[in-house]
Amino acid sequence: MFNLNTPLRLFQAALALATLGLSGYITHWYLHHTSPAAVPISTIYLLTVSSLTLLLTPYLLLNPALSLRHHNNPTPPGRFFNKHLILTLDTLLALLWFAGFVALAVFEHGLHICAGHVCDVMIGGVVCGALGMGSFFVTAGLAGAHVLRTRGGDMEVRGNHERWVGQMEARKVDA
To answer: Is 86:63 a contact under the CB 8 Å cutoff?
Structure first.
């Protein structure tokens, strides 16, 4: 089965970088063309969410790959991997991205006069925020499915006792 974790995490990192650049441009434009008090809070919020995403993406990307067990090495993964923490982080980031893109969309919609490149950049920021939210909801759904599929064990699917306790012990358990 194809592993969706790596492409989705790379997509999330790319969206975070794009949103970081777009929100930075909007903040810079408002700082230099209006008063500093007029800088929209939603862009600063999206800068924070993008930075947080870039900080957490290496953990979320490498964690499942480092925690996989080979059939020759039946030891459980170390304390570094926690499937519930990954589910929590994905859900939290999805909600933060949701709040950020909605806040920027509301701000952009509330502008009576919007001229220049900054409005186009805001629309790009809204689109990147919406895509980021959607991608984190997808990964949160995949993480939730993994948690449900592997409950009762650390990483193995329920009912598959061979890879957890060994072949001889699994025959005793299943019998």
So the answer is: yes
Q: Which amino acid is at 48?
A: T
Distance CA 3, CA 65 (A): 10
Distance from C-alpha of 126 to C-alpha of 76, rounded to nearest angstrom: 42
Interatomic CA distance for residues 62 and 144, integer angstroms = 18
Structure tokens at 128: 């990147």
Residue 117 corresponds to which tokens in the numbers above? 């490149």
Token pair 């012990």: residue: 169
Summarize pLDDT for 21-43 with one digit per residue, the tens. Answer: 999 998 998 888 887 788 889 89
Q: Residue 22: CB partners within 8 Å, gap ≥ 6?
A: 121, 122, 124, 125, 128
- Radius of gyration (C-alpha) of the chain in whole angstroms: 21
- The answer for residues whose C-beta is within 8 angstroms of residue 160's C-beta and 6 or more apart is none
Tell me which of 142 and 151 has the higher pLDDT.
Answer: 142
Task: Give the pLDDT confidence of 86-117 residue by residue, as tens digits.
Answer: 899 999 999 999 999 999 999 888 876 777 78
Largest CA distance in the chain: 75
Distance between CA atoms of 111 and 147, rounded to whole angstroms? 43
